[in-house]
Specification:
Blueprint lengths: L2 H9 L12 H5 L2 E13 L7 E6 L8 E4 L3 E8 L7 E4 L23 E6 L5 E7 L5 H4 L2 E7 L8 E11 L1 H8 L14 H4 L13 E6 L10 E2 L5 E8 L6 E5 L4 E6 L2 E9 L2 E3 L4 E7 L5 E7 L9 E5 L14
Parallel strand pairs: 1-4, 3-8, 9-12, 11-19
Antiparallel strand pairs: 1-2, 4-6, 5-7, 7-8, 9-10, 12-17, 13-16, 13-18, 14-15, 14-17, 18-19
The structure holds copper (II) ion.
Copper (II) ion binds next to β5.
Length: 327
C-alpha cells in the first residue's frame, strides 16, 4: 500500500455514512459517553493532496456523535494540537458553561489539556460540533455531525449522514481574512449568488479549495450508499464549508425536505436541488422506485466540485456508470 492510500484509509473511517437503528441497550442508557481527541493529521482525500489538517479521533470529519433525545452526553475532550481549542455544539440549547466559546464561556484548552463537556442535548435533530478556537481549527478539519434522535419521528428504511466539506488553500484563507483574496466565486451559473456578480468580479473574501469531499473522501473514491427498491431513505446533510453555499442534487430524484437546521418544517417541501448555506443542515428523503445508480453531488461552476459526490445504488448495479445531474 502506498503512503497516500494508507493515509486515505486511515482518514476515511467516517466514510461509512449509514446510521443504523440504535440497540435497545443504547436507547435505554441515561448517559452516552464519548471521547474526542484533536490532533494533527495529514489528510489525503484525493490524489496529490496532503493537507496539514487537524482532526478529531484521527479522521476528517470527526466521528458521528449520536444520542436519543432525553439522554445526557458526556464528552471528554483532549487537545493534542499545537493551538488552543474548544468544542462548540452548533444549534444546541445548553448551559452556557458548555457552549465552548473561548474566553467567554470557558478558558481555551491548551496543548495537552482537556475539558469535560456534559449536557442534555436539546433540541432533537441534525446538529454538529466544531472547534471554536481562534486559530482556524474548524477550517482545518475539526468538525463533525451530532444527531439527536427523536424516537417519535417516522423511521426511515435507511438513513445516511453526509458531511460536505472541502480542503482549503490556506494561503487563500489568510488572504480572504485580509480581504485581498483573488479566489473566484464558484456557485452554479444562474444561482442567486452568481446573478449578483459581473464577469471577473472579485470579492476579496473568497477562499479557493484544493479538493471537495463528502465524509472525508472525494469521488470516485467515495463509498457508495446501497439502497433497495421500495425503501424510503433519509439523508442528513451538513455543509461544513466555512465560506461556500452548496447546491446538492440526487440525479433522477426529487428530494423531500423535512427539516432545516435540524428543526422540523411546518410541512415537507419537494425540491430538485438543495441549497445549503454555510453551517446549515437539511434532512431530505427520497424513495427508491426502481433499480439504478445515481450520483448525489455538490453542484457548482468549479470543475473540482464533481469530486463532491457519492453513488447511490441498488444491489447489482456495482458496475453501472451512475446517472449524473448537469453542473
Ligand atoms: Cu457553529
Amino acid at each position: 500500500m502506498n503512503r497516500a492510500a494508507f493515509l486515505r484509509r486511515s482518514a476515511g473511517v467516517m466514510a461509512v455514512a449509514s446510521i443504523a437503528p440504535l440497540s435497545e441497550r443504547a436507547r435505554a442508557s441515561e448517559l452516552v459517553e464519548y471521547a474526542l481527541t484533536a490532533a494533527p493529521l495529514t489528510f489525503a482525500p484525493a490524489p496529490g493532496i496532503a493537507f496539514p489538517a487537524l482532526a478529531y479521533n484521527g479522521r476528517v470529519p470527526g466521528p458521528l456523535l449520536r444520542v436519543v433525545h432525553g439522554q445526557r452526553v458526556r464528552v471528554l475532550y483532549r487537545n493534542l494540537t499545537a493551538v488552543a481549542t474548544t468544542v462548540h455544539w452548533h444549534g444546541m440549547v445548553l448551559p452556557n458553561a458548555m457552549d465552548g466559546v473561548p474566553d467567554v464561556t470557558q478558558a481555551p484548552v491548551p496543548h495537552g489539556g482537556s475539558f469535560l463537556y456534559e449536557f442534555a442535548p436539546e433540541p432533537s435533530g441534525t446538529r454538529w460540533y466544531h472547534d471554536h478556537g481562534m486559530m482556524l481549527g474548524a477550517v482545518r478539519g475539526l468538525f463533525g455531525m451530532f444527531v439527536v434522535d427523536d424516537p417519535s419521528e417516522p423511521r426511515a428504511d435507511r438513513e445516511f449522514a453526509l458531511v460536505f466539506h472541502d480542503v482549503p488553500d490556506m494561503r487563500s484563507v489568510r488572504a480572504a481574512m485580509a480581504g485581498s483574496s483573488s479566489a473566484p466565486m464558484i456557485d452554479p451559473a444562474g444561482s442567486p449568488e452568481m446573478a449578483e456578480m459581473v464577469p471577473d468580479d472579485r470579492m476579496g473574501d473568497e477562499v479557493s479549495y484544493r479538493a471537495h469531499c463528502i465524509n472525508g473522501e472525494s469521488y470516485p473514491a467515495t463509498q457508495s450508499l446501497t439502497v433497495n427498491v421500495g425503501e424510503r431513505v433519509r439523508l442528513r446533510i451538513l455543509n461544513a464549508n466555512p465560506t461556500q453555499t452548496r447546491y446538492v442534487r440526487l440525479a433522477g430524484h426529487r428530494l423531500t425536505v423535512t427539516h432545516g437546521d435540524g428543526n422540523p418544517l411546518e410541512r415537507p417541501v419537494d425540491v430538485d436541488a438543495l441549497r445549503i448555506g454555510v453551517a446549515e443542515r437539511y434532512d431530505a428523503w427520497f424513495e427508491v422506485t426502481k433499480p439504478g445508480a445515481w450520483l448525489l453531488q455538490g453542484i457548482s461552476s468549479d470543475p473540482l466540485a464533481f469530486e463532491q459526490a457519492v453513488v447511490v445504488r441498488t444491489p447489482g448495479m456495482e458496475n453501472a456508470s451512475p446517472q449524473s445531474s448537469s453542473q
